[in-house]
Amino acid sequence: MAKITPGESPVVPRRSANYQPSLWDHRHLLSIKNKYAKDESVQERDFLKENVRKMLDDEKKTYLDKLELIDDLQKLGVSYHFEREIENILTFFYQKYRIDNHEKDLHATALEFRLFRQHGFNVSEDVFDVFMENCGKFESNNINDLISLYEASYLSTKSDTKLQKFIRTFATQKLRDFVDTHSNEDCGGSCDNDMVEMVVQALDMPYYWRMRRLATRCWWRETGLGNQLHFARDRIVENYFWTIGHIHEPQFGYVRRIMTKVNALITTIDDIYDIYGTLEELQLLTVAVENWDVNRLDELPEYMRLCFLVVYNVVNSIGRDVLKNKNINVIPFLKKSWTDLCKAYLVEAKWYKRGHKPNMEEYMHNAWISVSAPTIFVHFYCLFSDQLSIQVLETLTQHKQNIVRCSAYVVRLANDLATSPDELARGDVQKSIQCYMNETGASEEKARSHVRQMINDLWDEMNYEKMEHSSSLLHHDFMETVINMARMSQCMYQYGDGHGSPEKAKIVDRVMSLLFNPVPLD
């Protein structure tokens, strides 16, 4: 054992995750200009919006034409400009056409079903019975029909019996057969490459699960956390990317800016608990957050003081803004959400230090909190909602909202599928895949399959909660942002750890496409 001379501090062994520096140059980010903010672009946008309104109001357009137009507007990410018109059209169609399926083909029925359910209308899965043969099969081999059927099947709820078990299975297999056939033969120009690509994209990730939209940087630099806490991930652009996945409409720029700060702080705190801090230090930080007392900074290790102070100031700043604009003191609720998060982090740190291997139930009971989604939703609700409710804040901070739990579970499981090998390699608590393997003796492949099925079932439960929103305390728009969190996680972790190693998980391409190379107006 090495001797320590008087006055010399002992060396504390620290882990390292070897996170790479941020890929985004600060000066380059500041130099980016939005060419579409110019007057001529604004005028062109307004002209195009008026043309689309005329198309939506055009009585000569068929029922299917209008459904497809609404679907196109949603996929382009511009439907928020026409929310009133779309709601009126769908309400009219729902009242007039929902019982009459005789004049609609499979594509129209599936598209109608998907749009109605997306917008909260109660439509039975039985609308597909007229097209269904024995054993849940359909006569149609038309690719447009099959894509529409496949996409509609992802609006299933936990009360449905056919959509996931029969309809999705049938459509998925037919689409895979189509891709296999056209990938293994020379089409000679006879097959539609665009159609093949469309099918491949659908099979890769259904539309309903996809992220809706593929000044903060200066704040991050000024905090000094990125420089002083060298072990932590500097992921400010990726954190902003998360917020766009939650809510992309332009009027919510303030919400995105503040939530980017919250996300960045969560990332830093996560790395302190996950990688760098000793168990004794982490217990001190947890107590500091729970007490919320800036006068006790000296009790923390030096590297933790700045981090706690930044969290303290950001949360109190949010609280002041909400009190000023909405006349409700939300600081106790924000503080509790951070306390619960740090306590969940501490549980995992203890598991790792003590070599504890939790079973699946024990792991998930803690992990849906430690993935930080509940903390994010409390902050998001305070910033996003015009009419704040103490009752809603209480149910959110007491973890009583099932749709929040389901979304957080999806985030956790998607994260585990993408990151568990890297995290185990650097020395981390076992994830859901390993917990299931230890508990059941299953192979890793079967454990991953089980986790993917859990995600499917959670989507059914979220869809059910959304359909039954009339009995929920949560506003429909906030429920949609909760679901968007699940969508965003499956975007971020689809090809690997998009938050920790964005260059390896295709996230850089997605960020470039969304933020730096927007779809041109011309």
Automatic annotation (TrEMBL):
Coiled coil: none annotated. One of its GO terms (molecular function) is magnesium ion binding. It holds the Pfam family Terpene_synth_C. One of its GO terms (biological process) is diterpenoid biosynthetic process. Residues 222-460 form the Terpene synthase metal-binding domain. It comes from the Eukaryota. Residues 24-203 form the Terpene synthase N-terminal domain. Keywords: Magnesium, Manganese, Metal-binding. This is Terpenoid cyclases/protein prenyltransferase alpha-alpha toroid. The lineage of its organism: Eukaryota, Viridiplantae, Streptophyta, Embryophyta, Tracheophyta.
